[in-house]
From TrEMBL, chain A:
Name listed for the protein in its UniProt record: ABC transmembrane type-1 domain-containing protein
Database matches in InterPro entries: AA_ABC_transptr_permease_3TM (IPR010065), ArtM/GltK/GlnP/TcyL/YhdX-like (IPR043429), MetI-like (IPR000515), MetI-like_sf (IPR035906)
Keyword Magnesium belongs to the record: no
Keyword terms: Amino-acid transport, Cell membrane, Membrane, Transmembrane, Transmembrane helix, Transport
Domain of life, per lineage: Bacteria
Organism, as annotated: Micromonospora coerulea
Compartments in which it is found: Cell membrane
Residues of the ABC transmembrane type-1 domain: 58-253
Gene3D superfamilies registered for this protein in UniProt: MetI-like
Any Pfam family matching the protein: BPD_transp_1
Membrane spanning residue stretches: 12-31, 62-82, 103-121, 127-147, 232-253
Amino acid sequence: MKLRRRQRERLSLWLQYLAFIAIIAVVIFAADWGRLREAFFRVDIIESMFPTIITVALRNTILYTLGAFAFGLVFGTVLALMRLSRVAPYRWVATAYIELFRGLPALLVLFLVGYGIPIAFPEREIPGGVFGSIAIGLGLTAAAYMAETIRAGIQAVPKGQMEAARTLGMSHFTAMRTIVIPQAFRVVIPPLTNELILLTKDSSLAYVLGVTAQTIEVTKFGRDTLNDRVNATPLLVAGFAYLVLTLPLSQVVRRLELRYAKAR
Amino acid sequence: MTFQSAVRKAGLIMAIAALAVSAGCAKKDEGEVQAGGVKLIEKGKLTVCTHLPYAPFQSKDASGKVIGFDVDVMDLVAKELGVEQTIVDTPFEGIKSGQDLNTGKCDAAAAGMTITEERQKVMNFSDPYFDATQAMLVKTGKSYKSLDDLKGKKLGVQAATTGRDYARKFEAEKGLKLVEFEDLAALQQALANGQIEAAINDLPVWTEYIKEHPGGFDVAAEFDTGEQYGFSVKKDGNPELLKKINEVLAKAKQDGTYDKIYEKWIGKLPNA
């Protein structure tokens, strides 16, 4: 039987679908769903986690994330400007910082902030307690990433903008602040939102600092409930709690990227 | 061969490969490796799960070797089976939830672990091998004598431990502010830093810590909770190993080996 080209194409496509379905079917039928449900989907445990997971845990996750993001954004912008500075030592310091903190695990930085600062300055406290430590601890790492993103954004603004602003008599700083940086941020909002998504998940590292019932965040809450109930269901619930935050954020990124593509 | 037929073949091959792989994923039968009538997950090895550090029961010495009370006792079991003990350091949650044993990560768990009803639901415990009490450690010079003195103060506990559960019970009643730490070392550091006012954990752990930091810390209170430590194996999964552990424990208690280990790690025997 000789098939025409179209038919052959369609047949091969169907075979691929079949292969795909076969793979999924194997996974579905081979898995032990009864035991999986018993281990990961106990409705009574799910119910017991509400509303605390929202009112305390998710709220803290959001707070920690925003704190670290705000710290990282401000500090990252400063670093980006230093990287682009005409003053050579500024450039060296910023480059060294970025390379160092991009290379260190966030967990380590957080631990150093949480335990190192109290040792170094026994009479002082990081303002805001756990929140402050996390904002700084995670923000230090985030700043290194954000600095590179923001630097790329600033460099993407055409040189003529700065030149025109200077011609109008603006100082370098004013031109930077009012002309270049606002345009740069339009470019970097999508990648910065990605950073926000990453930080949402990094906020789970808060556990290294020691958490109280008031400062608990989603992952630790899940693990705690796992301990109390000796069942893995809480971890699944915690995972969904993150999706509630990160999925809308991904949508925002997509929208912003589209809008930016149109505006160009 | 045309392009389309190549794609078609690729699709078919993929389907077959996927089926083959999924069939090949099947775990080899348990009980394949035996030693002295006991099945082990790895040949010639008694794999033991623990969470480090938990001196004097298990901790690393200067050379990185894991040593301690539990290690010595499990070594007796390994010797009896004619195998070597290997130790896996894993989060305590995995141990106490029974998952490390269920998933075949370890043959047994030896982690200074208290026998509790909850835990007995997910694993089988050996006979008790150690009587533990909970104790509260404070920095030398602090005047806290009981949980009542800690109203509104920060009390550190270690995640997933019985000490944490004990403190939890009194959290509301005594107005405690519980701070939960992942590791014993983090808990100790937080106490040393003054991030918490007191810390609760098993007494032998604090005794060991005071020994290493003389003059810095005091046990302010002891709570006799009637706790006993046990080793554990997979729930209904390895009765032979459990039997062997109990035999070794009984023998060691009889011939004085247990006392020797006790004196080496803990100090003088109670009521001795």
